[in-house]
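Researcher: Structure prediction, please.
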Amino acid sequence: MLKKIQFLLLFLFFNFHIVHAEKLLVAVASNFVAPAKELSQEFSRITSHNVSLSFGSTGKLYAQIVHGAPFQVFLAADQERPFKLVSQGIAEKGSQFTYALGRIVLYCPRVETDQQPLEILKSNEFARMAIANPTTAPYGRAALEVLQNLVILENLSTRIIQGDNIAQTFQFVSTGNAELGFISRSQLINIDPDLYWTIPADLHSPIQQDAVLIQKGLDTKAAREFLEFLKSDLAREIIQSFGYDLE
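Model: Predicted structure follows.
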């Protein structure tokens, strides 16, 4: 009898979550692709909600949201765009918080000498260097700040190529279209650390990545639950495991 009751409770619990499962649309900055996928899988496993992720540069995703894209949650790579969405009444006031602190690295995968990536950057002995578009991608803006603070931007301006986002920037470097480039540390978790230089935090403004609830998600239980999940110990451990810092 006890086993029958336990089975019934499990059956009711499972079906309750299936019946109340919702579809959640999340806009995610390109640097956060890998952790977002793992986070969404864990969230779906716990809640049965179906999470659909859409990746792009923070600036382009912001523009899509302003023009009515049906996202319910926005995981940006800066604080500026979520704040603007709140100010414009497109995102819920009080829902914005920092879910990760990004770190930028100088990646040089085809090093054939004993030179470190920073030495190669300063040597001028390369044809192209990749950064993300600083207008739409916070990591690109941080890269420009690094070059300015190292007082070498003027010498390199004709060699810089820009990716639409940090994912395309990484592709430029990994395929050899650029010998080196500034990308997110999270993209190099399993890469030999001798091939990149983690930029000291004092060489650029903090990359505070904020999440916010879009007005379209106000009546969506899944959206609110996902944002709360991002604050959980499990989510924070996953985020840290991909090379991000936390507040």
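Model: The chain has two domains: 2-101+207-241, 104-198.
Researcher: Thanks, that helps.
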